[in-house]
Give the backbone structure.
Amino acid sequence: MAIIENSSVLVTGGAGFIGSNIIDKLMNQGNRVVCLDNFSTGKRDNIAHHLPNANFKLIDGDIRDFATCTKATQGVDFVLHQAALGSVPRSIKDPITTNEVNVTGFLNMLVASSDAGVKRFVYAASSSTYGDSKELPKVEERIGNPLSPYAVTKYVNELYANVFSSVYKMEIIGLRYFNVFGPRQDPNGAYAAVIPLFVKSLISKTSPLINGDGNFSRDFTYVANVVQANELAATTTSTEAINTVYNIACGTRTTLNELFSVIKGELSAFDAEIVHTKAIYGPERAGDVPHSLASISKAQKFLDYMPTHSFSQGIKEAIGWYWENLA
Ligand SMILES: NC(=O)c1ccc[n+]([C@@H]2O[C@H](COP(=O)([O-])OP(=O)(O)OC[C@H]3O[C@@H](n4cnc5c(N)ncnc54)[C@H](O)[C@@H]3O)[C@@H](O)[C@H]2O)c1
């Protein structure tokens, strides 16, 4: 499988959950890595182990500042753009900041990368772009109307990417991630994702809240699959494969009720009492799509993407990590 080697790579949002997992792999492969992050949701702990390494450079800065983007892109082969404000509820509460980071910041990064002549720009797109489309599985060519400010920003990223590939002749690939999970995904704060939230509640034997009746479903994707997709997208030499977007997922879906019971089962191996914890149910959340399932055929065909971790393999690894780090 193609991997990034002997390269200089800028990872924006590199102190975050996905970005730091990407950086670990790039550093293990001996690349030179620049991490640009403003630590708004990312953590120093996620990258602290690389700070002594001469191949690693941290820029504590903001993608909303164009001069910072220009500095970060100098001499870089690939940009793996992960920095953004995630979370649908956050974007509903504060659409202005979400737009500034996710749209203006994205545009800054595109212009700076174009000016610097980077070889390829790979960015984190989102399954939220499918919006109100009811079609399952989701195929890249058919999207619905966005259901949240966050979804709008991620769709606008795709529109800008198309324009920059045609007008500025940049090589760009967007990866529509579907509900990513794994080590370092933050269980704390108002906008934590469902898997770390469930894990944290269950470890402390308190009942997690399920929004809705638990029958909503997601294509939960282990972070190693997302790291793989970034490497493949950066290194593909096929001209057919570039200047487009791909679903990055497992191609299977799990309801929230199933998720709760799988996590409970895994954690019960560490503490048998956890099995008695029950979930509580609350109202559905605004902006949530009921079901999400990806077709991954396009990524398989053009990028040779092949998930190394199924949902259940990924959950086992993630739970092991949370037990070591949270319990
Ligand atoms: N986690 C998922 O399920 C998922 C799904 C679809 C898309 N995505 C996208 O993947 C990317 C990474 O998400 P994540 O889950 O790792 O989230 P995260 O919050 O852990 O990481 C985002 C990182 O970006 C940094 N950042 C935010 N604003 C910034 C700014 N103005 N300047 C510089 N850095 C900034 C944060 O400090 C953080 O380190 C995001 O673009 C997100 O929208 C994530």
Remarks:
- The CA atoms of residues 14 and 20 lie 5 Å apart.
- The first helix runs from residue 17 to 28.
